Amino acid sequence: MVQTIVKPPTPETIAELKKTIRKLNSKAGQMKMDLHDLAEGLPTDYETLIEEATKTYDIYRQLAELRQQLKTWEESS
Q1: Pair 53, 35: CB distance under 8 Å
Q2: Which has fewest Cβ within 10 Å: 3, 15, 16, 43?
Q3: Residues with Cβ < 8 Å from 58, sequence gap 6 or more?
Q4: Could you please report the per-residue DSSP string of 36-56?
Q5: Which domains, and CATH codes, for the chain?
Q6: Distance of CA 44 to the CA centre of its chain
Q7: pLDDT, tens digit, 9 for 90 and up, residues 5-41
């Protein structure tokens, strides 16, 4: 069995994660608005709906994972 050693996060890594979350949050907000605009224009460009919805879902899922990681890091510091 391999034992993994996890180092506690440094203040710098926490700050970097917060910066990443802010950037991703901004991008996610823009993607949400783009998806909203696409939905309002239906049936025009319906071919791109699944792709854009998937991208938007993926970025929000990633954002949720990073926020959970930040919460865990902040609780352990």
Answers
A1: yes
A2: 3
A3: none
A4: HHHHHTTTTTGGGHHHHHHHH
A5: 11-76 (1.10.287.660)
A6: 28
A7: 567 889 999 999 999 999 999 999 999 999 999 999 9
Question: Which amino acid is present at 18?
Answer: K
pLDDT in tens, 39-64: 999 999 999 999 999 999 999 999 99
Are 38 and 48 within 8 A, CB to CB? yes
**How many C-beta atoms lie closer than 10 Å to residue 13's C-beta?**
12
Structure tokens given for 3: 């034992």
- Considering the entire predicted model, what is its pTM? 0.84
Provide, for the chain, the percentages of residues in helix, strand and coil under a 3-state DSSP scheme, each rounded to the nearest 5: 80, 0, 20
The set of residues, in sequence order, having a beta carbon less than 8 Å from that of 27 and lying 6+ positions away, is: 59
In degrees to the nearest 10, what's the CA dihedral of 68, 71, 73, 77? -170
